[in-house]
Amino acid sequence: MKRLLTFRILASIGVTMLALAVTAPRMQSITPPDAPTGLAAVSNGFAEEFCANQASMTNAVNSPQIPADECNFDAAAEEFLGPETEADGLGPIFNMAGCGECHFTPALGGSSHISEKRAGFFNGNVFIDHPGGSLIQDRATNPNIQETVIPSKANVTTLRMSLGIFGDGFVEAIANQTLQDIAKAQPFSMRGDAINVPVLEKPRQNRVGRFGWKAQQASLLSFSADAYVNEMGITSPLQPDENTSNGNSVAAHDKVPAGHPNDPDDLGVDVELFALFMRSLPAPAQDAKRAATVNAQIGASLFNSIGCDTCHTPQMVTAAPGTWINGGALKVANALGNKTIRPFGDFLLHDIGTGDGIVQNGGQGTRNKVRTAPLWGLRTRGRLMHDGASLNVTDAIQRHGNQADKARDAFNLLSSSSKAKLIEFLMSL
Fold this sequence. Notes:
By secondary structure, the protein is an alpha+beta fold. Helix content is 25%, strand content 10%. It is globular, with a radius of gyration of 21 Å. The relative contact order is 0.16.
C-alpha cells in the first residue's frame, strides 16, 4: 500500500493503549508484536464479513466498491492513518494531512488533545455560518488562503475536541427507534432531541443523527466523506465541491481542478476504506479490575441514583443482523447486529448550558445543544467537554446545567467519600 512504511513506523511508537473488547479472531496488530497482550486495535469482525460479501451488504449511491485486494482491516487502518499529500488531493485548505493526526489517543482511532475552530454570526434570531462554513481550516497549501483570521463580525466562536471512534460501528447499527424510545422515556425537562439528518450515500433519505458534537451525521460513510473534504480538503463523489477560504474560491490554488482527467482527489475508495476502518473498530471495554472494586460498584449505583444515567444511557442493543440501515445503504453485519453495548450515552442533543452556538444539521433550535458525550473510554481522555476546557471529571460535572442541573446538584449534595466513589466508577470506563 502507498503508506505502508509510514504506517509501520508510526505503529511502532509503542504508545500505551486501552484494552478493547474483541469478539473476533485477532487480526494483524497496529501495535508492535511485543506490545502488552490485549492492547492492540484489531477488527471486530466487520471488515472480514463485509469484504467477503461487499456486493450484497451495501447499496450506496455515488460510492464505489472497495477493490478486493484493498478490502481488509489493515488496508483500511493504513488509509485512515495517512498522511495524505497534494498528489492525493490534499487541500488547498485543510486542517490535518491524515485522520491519524487527530485520532491516536490511546490508539489509532481514539481521540486526542487537538481541537478545531468553528465560527459564525448570530443576529439574535438566526445563526449564520462564517463565510465558507462554520469550520475554520487552519492550514493551506498556500499561506495566502489560510483561514487564520476570523472576522470581528463573527460573534460566535468555539473550539471542538476530536472524538474517538472506537465502537462507532455498533453505534451506526443502533436502530432509529431505539434512540427515539430513549428520548421518549426521559423526563420532559431532560428529554433529548433525536434529529433526522441527510444520508449522503442515499439521496433524499434521512436518519437519526448520532455522530459528531451536534449529532450531525447518521452514517459513517457520510461522516467519512464530510471529514475528507472538511478536514483534509479532499473531495469525493459524496462531497464533490471544494471548500472556500473565508468564502473565496481556492480554484487558483488547486493544481488539478475537479473534473480534470488527472484530478488526484479521491474517487470514493479512500472514503469507503475510512468507513470500513471505523465500522471495524471494537468498542472500548470497561477496566474490569477497577470496576470490580467495592468503591466503583457503589459509584455505579450512585451514578444511576442521582440521574446521570438519564442521558448517559448505560446500555442499548443494536439492530438485528440483516437489517438495512442508512436509508437502505448498508446491511447490519452479524459482527455488529443484536449486540449489547455499553456506551453510557444516548446520542441525543441536550441543552446543558455549554452549547457552542453553532448550527449544523439540526436546525436553529439546536444552536445551544450538544450531543451527550458517550463515556466509554473516558479514562483515556485528558480534556473533557466539547471544548476540552475541563481537565478533570469534577470540573466537567460542575459545568452541567439547564437540562442536567438536577444531576449536577445531586452530585454536589453527596459526601466527599461518595463523590470519590462515583468518580472511581467513571474512571473505570
